[in-house]
Amino acid sequence: MESSNPYQTPQTVFNGSEAAARPGELQYAGFWRRFGAFWLDALCLAPLTGIVLFLSTTTRYFHALWLVPGLLFALWFNVYLVKRYGGTPGKLMLKIRIAMVDGAAVTGKAAMLRYSVMFILSALVSLALVMASLAMSDDLYLSQGFMRMNMTLVQHTPGWYPGVNTAMQIWIWSEFISMLFNKRRRAVHDYMAGTVVVRTLKA
User: At what angle do helices 161-179 and 108-135 cross, to 10 degrees?
Assistant: First the structure.
């Protein structure tokens, strides 16, 4: 009896960077498709990013005011959308979805695990910027151009900020690098959460 799950049966024939699947088998998304989805997400978020950057130049209290809403938005974008629709907008536009290793729909726990490390690092970076902005005077914060203001802001961050920022950069690059060294193109967060990224039937 055939499975009703379109992602069921993990045996897949690999052909280059994409998986060439027979009917009923998982077809794993290749590196470039996943990389492209990452940048499509960045493009989707560009308007919000622009607004946030603009508002950050109007008052030194913006970082503190945006801390909780920003983290909640990140959870909605990277956890809720993944659980509800199987992926972020970039992934869905490129016809790929996140699934459990057996092809089942991704669970809420798995979605949270996939994003957990990045969420913690992002929260710490945001907290450091809040502390830095509150430590500056209004005159110092508002008297400089955008680029200079951000350089000064980083200079006022706590001593642990460089380590956290470096850890974030290492994490992001390790995610992409790990996809190059396994046939199913799984990133580190996929191993943590027990997930894979697969092509949809409409791809």
Answer: 150
